[in-house]
Q: What sequence folds into this?
DNA sequence: GTACGCTGTGAATCACGATTCACACACCCG
DNA sequence: CGGGTGTGTGAATCGTGATTCACAGCGTAC
């Protein structure tokens, strides 16, 4: 398994798949299209992946992992900058999520809401659960620190994640006319604060 | 077009389609299955509907219209009972949405999140937009009445609708062990209040 | 009674994209 | 140099459901 030569084509296929999704969504990313864009024949794809689904599972995994890293990094950066507030941190993480989603709407839509094949859907669900778990953890910390009142952590986490996703792809699906990313991010921050029950006092530590 | 005789079979097909969705979701509702359950041959379906998609568009429309009616009725009832609070009203509407979704999880999942064919998806989107518009309207009223602070109405409406949907189908998809409908509804009410910025004071009028 | 139109039938057909496979080509190893 | 292995090709094949259509049955109009 000489990962050198094989890796080249493999990587090219992964890139082609991601690019197709970014441009026209999952539905436009057929095996033929991916192969063509990668500059190989359809059969070649099957030298490197068990099936179309496996290829896209890997694409999703890669992209979601990257997003996760970026989000967590934003949270950590804020913490490193001296913030002790779990909610401020969470807000920063979700704002990062939003900024990145707004920068790549089509990809965000594919990642969050577009119909995809079962295995890929499972991968998406797994990541959504990770995000939700992270939010839940933040909420628990915030409650312990008396930043926010007690609440149903699991429900709220799911609702916040779902709400942010829906509010971001909503403005995307109808492809409304460039609703000013900064304004959207600001609205999302405000929504998150309210949804988790953070009074204005919560800001003190954050900014 | 003798709607009498034709209506019988037509209605039977619509019922069969809905029942199949309720039992096993949209993916299990093939033309053959629907026809069999309705007690007719596959070809008969095409005597009454242009295509599979048209059939299911009608199913979705019927069900969603029914849900909408039930929700609005709950809101109106509260208002008729003397409540003057737009938020209490909205809360009641969404709680009704939740109660009904929890009673018929599979259907709710199909309506909210399951992959469906494009035309059906468009119908789903249209209804989601109606619900969102209703929420937005309620928020505007509440803001005008000083029930809640000013906020990005469009964003918040989308986020609340999306959040409620996600939090409800989340507990359903993995078919978690009966998480006590009443508790879920209570959590949802609390979430909605917080998300729209309704302080505890908002309750005064409601209950 | 017969012509006509509406329903119903279900096996055959079609569409469409994923998947396979017999056939190269290139490179390395002995 | 003769195998052997990894990689690439792309036309043919497959699978899955939706859709069609030639052939009834049946009621109504005339």
A:
């Amino acid at each position: 398994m000489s990962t050198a030569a094989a890796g080249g084509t493999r990587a090219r296929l992964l890139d082609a798949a991601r690019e197709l999704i970014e441009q026209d969504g999952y539905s436009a990313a057929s095996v033929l299209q991916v192969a063509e864009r990668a500059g190989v024949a359809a059969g070649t794809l099957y030298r490197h992946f068990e099936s179309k689904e496996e290829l896209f599972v890997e694409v999703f995994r890669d992209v979601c992992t990257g997003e996760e890293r970026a989000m967590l990094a934003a949270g950590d950066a804020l913490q490193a900058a001296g913030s002790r507030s779990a909610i401020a941190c969470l807000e920063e993480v979700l704002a990062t999520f939003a900024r990145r989603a707004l920068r790549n709407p089509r990809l965000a839509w594919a990642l969050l809401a577009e119909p995809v094949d079962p295995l890929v859907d499972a991968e998406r669900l797994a990541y959504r659960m990770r995000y939700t778990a992270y939010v839940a953890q933040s909420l628990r910390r915030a409650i312990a620190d008396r930043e926010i009142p007690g609440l149903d952590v699991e429900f709220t986490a799911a609702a916040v994640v779902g709400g942010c996703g829906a509010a971001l792809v909503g403005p995307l699906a109808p492809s409304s006319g460039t609703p000013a990313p900064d304004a959207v991010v600001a609205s999302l921050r405000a929504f998150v604060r309210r949804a988790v029950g953070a009074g204005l006092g919560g800001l003190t530590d954050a900014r």
Notes: The mean pLDDT of chain B is 91. DSSP finds nine helices and no strands in chain B. Residues 30-32, 42-43, 45-46, 51-52 of chain B lie near DNA strand D (CB under 10 Å from a C1').
